[in-house]
Amino acid sequence: MSLKQRVEEVLDQVRPTLQADGGDIELLDVSEDGIVKVQLTGACGSCPFSTMTLKHGVEARLKDMIPEVKEVLSI
What we know:
CATH topology: GMP Synthetase, Chain A, domain 3
GO molecular function, one term: iron ion binding
Strand order of the largest sheet: 1-2-3
InterPro entries: FSCA_dom_sf (IPR034904), NIF_FeS_clus_asmbl_NifU_C (IPR001075)
Order of helices and strands: HEEHHE
Radius of gyration: 11 Å
Family: Belongs to the NifU family.
Helix content: 40-55%
Structural class: alpha+beta
CATH architecture: 2-Layer Sandwich
Pfam family, one: NifU
Strand content: 25-35%
Number of helices: 3
């Protein structure tokens, strides 16, 4: 399974939590050096806590589940 597929699987696990608050997350790119680019959409895109959600929620979960992930960036 590719790194991108593994990242998508983890995002599918966190997606319901984001959707419950009126938002979502879209995977844009996964580089070979472990940089994941996403876009927070809906309520998450304009939420003042989106950076915390991204770093302490999404990024932490991805790093925990997939050690190759180095950073998650929101575009």
